[in-house]
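EI: anyone free to look at a 160-residue chain?
SC: sure, send it
EI:
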Amino acid sequence: MSETISIYTDGACSGNPGPGGYGIVMLYKGHRKEISAGYKYTTNNRMELLSVIVALDSIKTEGMNVVVYSDSKYVVDAIEKGWLKGWIMKNFAKIKNPDLWVKMVRAMKRHKVKFVWVKGHASNVENNRCDELAVAATKSKPLIEDTEFERLKSSGMYEE
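SC: here you go
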């Protein structure tokens, strides 16, 4: 049986939209990797999505078994309840964050991915660490521009 990579992710935003960040903890064969980054102006859901995309894209070997643990019902339910399949069939019409969902689909195709929801701000040590990383990233310098969010918002395609 193939080994599994465990990925814990979280997104944070100070204001929504506002400064945001994501935190990732990856565990594989006794190794641990933490990743985080902050964005100048974004949303919490974009950071939740981006955390998963960055984590999956950072896996060097294709075809790995991956379990993603997230406290985001938005992300987990979209995959596990099949909403994403419907959004793909509709070419992401009227769906928020279409740019990131397209990237998510691409990243997921490289691996065998399962999503598991975990309760946020509870007793899950790794999820709590991701939250710490994400919150700290919102205050990091320099913050990255979320240019696609800015474009979607200015074109009226992203309403709050």
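EI: The mean pLDDT is 94.
SC: 👍
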